[in-house]
């Protein structure tokens, strides 16, 4: 396992600022933590290379897209049927343009995930 990276106060400030709004540019982040934009870029790159920052993401609000029904599904199955069921569910999700599931890792004999769907009166 890699050793824990040494983070100073500015690194922690950058991490807090990025968690609040990861869309900020280096200049804006620099104003927040009182560093130049190139210094911020260097620190962010170092944090990414150290695995402290593993990526950036958009948080989608399913209800704003008309998906008002949430359910978590978990299936227990034996043998190769799990893979076939998982593939079938993935195909349905793609064809219906459903948002991706949020949960994984239910174990080798289980498949499942979050499902979002529209109610019958979707606008």
- Strand composition percent: 5-15%
| Relative helix content | 25-40%
Order of helices and strands: HHHEHE
Uncertain parts: none
SS content category = alpha+beta
Radius of gyration: 21 Å
Shape: elongated
Amino-to-carboxy terminus distance? 50 Å
Your description of this structure?
By secondary structure, the protein is of the alpha+beta class. The chain folds into 2 domains: 9-49, Orthogonal Bundle (Arc Repressor Mutant, subunit A); 62-117, no CATH class. 40% of the residues lie in helices and 13% in strands. It is built from 4 helices and 2 strands; from the N terminus they run H-H-H-E-H-E. Helix 2 (26-33) packs across helix 3. It starts with 8 loop residues before the first helix and ends in a 6-residue tail after the last strand.
